[in-house]
């Protein structure tokens, strides 16, 4: 984001220098200050709290979204690349150097990972059983039982409403912090407690969707894209799936 901000600052300085050259007596030609909200959806003219309210409403009403970036939770960093909609989600999560795929269709949740993901340290004599279980599960879509503790943990990454509600809240005193661009789209920046409570870039074009979030306390940075772009969700084929039973092995 920094190069964009510097470019805008230099552009503004150049415009002012050009205006100075056009001054003739007291007549100033073509030097009216450009309104950064001209031709936008208008949210840039609103107070920060109102912008946050509108962007949360826009996000909630969108049928689908792609979330990409990092989230720090419980001392662990998760790299996400998820496509989400109201009835499920599809994508990948990486943590501690291990990547696993998540797929939820309605209430059915599946995890796909290599054998190493399913390997875990056990007591004496459990090594062979662990290796056998990991070999069976590796590379397959493993159905996660709804009663398993992993279901709640993993399904949260695939729940559009839950994930966005937890992410799109800035903390502390809200304020606007200038205009910018994100992936070529003009934005208005709002902050919580001058950035320590998070920073959010909101689109000034079309609906006021959130486009980039820096979470409070250095808890990750996320980008949001493909708002409203539907995608197919289907359960994996039976030959791609393993139903492990009532509870997954620890991983």
Would you give an account of this structure?
Residues 1-29 form the signal peptide. The chain has 251 residues and is an alpha+beta fold. It is built from six helices and twelve strands. The longest helix is centred in the first third of the chain and has 21 residues, at 2-22. The radius of gyration is 24 Å and the shape is elongated. The model is unreliable at 1-29 and 121-125 (pLDDT under 50).
Please supply descriptive tags for the structure shown above.
single chain, 251 residues, alpha+beta, 12-stranded mixed beta sheet, 12 strands, 31% strand, elongated, disordered N terminus, signal, Lipoprotein
Task: Explain the layout of strands and helices.
Blueprint: H1 2-22, H2 48-61, E1 64-73, E2 76-85, E3 88-95, E4 98-105, E5 108-112, H3 115-118, H4 127-137, E6 141-143, H5 149-155, H6 160-167, E7 174-182, E8 185-192, E9 199-203, E10 210-214, E11 221-225, E12 241-243
Parallel strand pairs: 6-12
Antiparallel strand pairs: 1-2, 1-11, 2-3, 3-4, 4-5, 5-6, 7-8, 8-9, 9-10, 10-11
Protein name: Lipoprotein
Keywords: Signal
Signal peptide: 1-29
In short:
With 251 residues, the protein is α+β, with helices and mostly antiparallel strands.
On the 0-100 scale, what is the average pLDDT? 84
Distance N to C terminus: 37 Å
How much strand?
25-35%
Percent of residues in helices: 25-40%
Q: With helices defined by DSSP (H or I, 4 residues minimum), what is the helix count?
A: 6
């Amino acid at each position: 984001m920094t190069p964009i901000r510097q470019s805008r600052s230099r552009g503004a300085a150049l415009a002012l220098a050009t205006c100075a050259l056009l001054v003739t007596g007291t007549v100033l030609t073509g030097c009216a200050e450009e309104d950064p909200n001209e031709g936008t959806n208008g949210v840039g003219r609103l107070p920060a709290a109102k912008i946050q309210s509108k962007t949360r409403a826009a996000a909630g009403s969108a049928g689908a979204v792609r979330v990409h970036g990092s989230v720090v939770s419980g001392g662990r960093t998760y790299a996400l690349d998820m496509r989400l909609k109201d009835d499920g989600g599809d994508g990948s999560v990486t943590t501690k150097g291990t990547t696993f795929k998540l797929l939820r269709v309605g209430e059915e949740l599946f995890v796909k990972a290599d054998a190493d993901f399913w390997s875990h340290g056990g007591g004496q004599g459990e090594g062979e059983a662990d290796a056998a279980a990991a070999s069976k599960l590796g590379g397959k879509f493993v159905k996660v039982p709804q009663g398993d503790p992993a279901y709640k943990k993993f399904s949260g990454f695939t729940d559009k409403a839950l994930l966005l509600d937890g992410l799109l809240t800035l903390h502390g005193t809200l304020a606007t912090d200038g205009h910018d661009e994100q992936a070529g789209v003009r934005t208005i920046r709002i902050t919580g407690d001058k950035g320590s409570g998070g920073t959010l870039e909101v689109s000034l074009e079309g609906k006021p969707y959130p486009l980039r979030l820096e979470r409070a306390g250095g808890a990750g940075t996320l980008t949001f894209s493909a708002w409203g772009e539907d995608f197919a969700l289907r359960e994996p084929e039976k030959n791609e799936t393993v139903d492990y039973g009532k509870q997954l092995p620890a991983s």
